[in-house]
Amino acid sequence: MPPPRGVILDTFGGSGTTAVAAVRTGRRFVIMEQDEGYYLTACKRLEDEYRNE
């Protein structure tokens, strides 16, 4: 785990679980996903997460 404000790179982003965990722990992230369905799911999860901050 990188230090707080560190950067997490997830090259197989899937549904965005790692990105959501990064947001919750105050870390920055770069997420990549080639499947459009997973990409859209991850976007929705992140939108919801940022709304709840």
How would you characterize the overall build of this protein?
The chain has one domain. The protein has 2 helices and 2 strands, in the order βαβα. With 53 residues, the chain is of the alpha+beta class. Strand 1, helix 1 (17-24) and strand 2 form a beta-alpha-beta unit. It has a two-stranded parallel ribbon. Helix content is 45%, strand content 15%. The chain has helices spanning 17-24, 36-51, and strands at 7-10, 28-31.
In short:
The protein is α+β, with helices and mostly antiparallel strands.
Which key terms come to mind for this protein?
53 residues, alpha+beta, two-stranded parallel sheet, 2 strands, 15% strand, flat
Order of helices and strands, N to C? Answer: EHEH
Report the average pLDDT across residues: 94
Strands ordered across the widest β-sheet: 1-2
Give the structural class: alpha+beta
**Which parts are unreliable, with pLDDT below 50 for 5 consecutive residues or more?**
none
Number of strands: 2
The backbone outline, from C-alpha atoms, is flat
Task: Outline the fold blueprint.
Blueprint (H helix, E strand, L loop, with lengths): L6 E4 L6 H8 L3 E4 L4 H16 L2
Parallel strand pairs: 1-2
Helix pairs in contact: 1-2
